[in-house]
Model the fold of this input.
Amino acid sequence: MTPNRPDTVYGTMAVIGIGQIGASFALAARRAGVVDRVIGVARKQTTRDEALGVGAADECTADVVEALGDADIVYVSVPVGAMRGVFEQIAPHLPAGCLVTDAGSTKAEVCRWAAQLLPETVSFIGGHPMAGTEKHGPAAASAELFDGTTYLLCPGRAAQPVTTRLESAIRRIGAAPLVVDPDQHDTILAYSSHLPHLVAVALSVAIARSGIEGIVRFSAGGLRDTTRIAAADVDMWRDIFAANSEAVLAATRAMREVTEEFIEAIETGDVQRVESLLETGRRFREKLYASPVGVDSSEGEAQDSD
Done:
């Protein structure tokens, strides 16, 4: 579909999985004049009603094929584990020349599926916005969610004009596009996102198993800050750990080594070793966000299951 306005990047966008991330991308795209029309796809009627209610879509449907129609861009924002099935479902019905992009939190496997399953008449660019919260659903969506964040892209075999067009749209919604190799993406994200989530969950489970009652009354901001992301969607994170298992295991083993260093030092009363580890961590954290990098530090992940 040809855009109605000269400054519009895409005419019609179909958003498959119009939860927090999908709805936020739609709201941001509408705010920036990137698209003329948005069709949302969700299984649940309540999700479709919410998406319409917050203004993320012009219309919504449970029928994926119906939504594709004359789409110029198809934005797939479902859990990684559901991505292959969505590609299989939409492949025979995609309009020639359209762009398919995703918002999955792992990229190597998703990009392989796209190369295997999507027709050569369309383009695919893997995507991962570094934005989100532990909440989900269109009611948690915001047109400002991507402001000042990095948006990772894996163009693969997509032609440069197609990539440039998407990069332009991403800049207009307030994010900074960054091209990255899919395998590199998964290795880095294992440390920057997946391990932090695992640690937050492990801490929550450890406290739950301790049997301590009323622990919030004995805590300041540290407990709240370090466990916040453990409240994120379980199905989504199960799929992330499965899809990126090798890199997640490597990162988790590295974390275990440091934890074991702490255990040994505390057991033996080696206060100098404890101090050294604390100091190493302190210095790293001080440098970590010392310079503006344009990245939102929240660790909510970019898929929707509703």
Observations:
- The beta strands are 10-16, 35-41, 59-61, 73-76, 99-102, 123-129, 150-154, 176-179.
- The mean pLDDT is 92.
